[in-house]
């Protein structure tokens, strides 16, 4: 059976990669519909040997659609995905709109695909920074159990969308020409203040919660628990995060400190466990100065891991450095892999 597929947010930074990942996948596509805002209606985009005209996304756009891949922001998903489900489509959503809904599976392929059977029309794709961390930690969690995760992220500007990415490039030019840098989007659209990212670091991704954490940090905590323990508030695993935006175009870096339950875990075992896991690539040779870098991860589907070492003072704790392309591993590849898993399991 071939599917009618719609990409919602096709003109965005993730949208273009959803198209290429769909073409790369084994999902049989009969018709592809490209949906975006009114601004993009009529724009023509190449897909394989066809030229497809972008349509404005409306509830009726989903008539006859089997599968929706969506990445047009949380508000658009909240408004349109229930309309798509009503019309019989299954939606894989790369926004935060439905992730914490207990009836919506939150999936990292290779980690918790078995949850897909419970879907009721919408499947959520986790936040990019959560995906790469959970992908790296899952084999360790399965073998040794995890007690605590302390993560600091170094997140690329593309995570904030194409417009934020363009803003940073403009700022870089302004800085080099000794002009004042104009900031209107970052750290996050619609917030009280905006700051330049070029030649800077912003310890704010998404809005602040009342407890002093940002919403990005909140997502890393609760999504990790939902994916690994099936409960967004699971008390057995302690997770805390500091999320920082860095002036990198593509590729999130994460310094991950984790404590295991099993005192027999060693660095060598952890390294070989991760090396045997599909989708993980070990780049870890301090003598040769080999470690993951965003520039090398760009365009790749894998998660890259290096700097694996033991905490000198705590035999149950370890550190590692994890890098992945946030638009691919953290978004488009994960979304399309979820869709492929649905097809394979006959769940569409
Ligand atoms: P458009 O290009 O027409 O604005 P990014 O994450 O790179 O910012 O991309 C966001 C994506 O979401 C784009 O494809 C954008 O389309 C789409 N989008 C934004 N607002 C809407 C909307 N109201 N309805 C449908 N798509 C939208
Ligand atoms: C960023 N992680 O880098 C965010 C982008 O919940 O899907 C993804 C937001 C989300 O800004």
Overview of this structure, please?
There is one protein chain. The termini are close together. With 348 residues, the chain is α/β, with parallel strands linked by helices. The longest helix has 17 residues, at 128-144. 29% of the residues lie in helices and 23% in strands. The chain folds into two domains: 3-126 and 331-344, NAD(P)-binding Rossmann-like Domain (Rossmann fold, 3-Layer(aba) Sandwich); 130-326, 2-Layer Sandwich (Dihydrodipicolinate Reductase, domain 2). Helix 1 packs across helix 8 (328-344) and helix 3 crosses helix 8 (328-344). The protein contains eight helices and 14 strands. The chain is globular, with a radius of gyration of 20 Å. The strands form three sheets. It has a six-stranded parallel β-sheet, sandwiched between helices. Strands 10-9-11-14-13-12 form a six-stranded mixed β-sheet. Residues 95-96, 127-129, 155, 159-160, 205, 216, 219, 326 line the site of (2R)-2-aminohexanedioic acid.
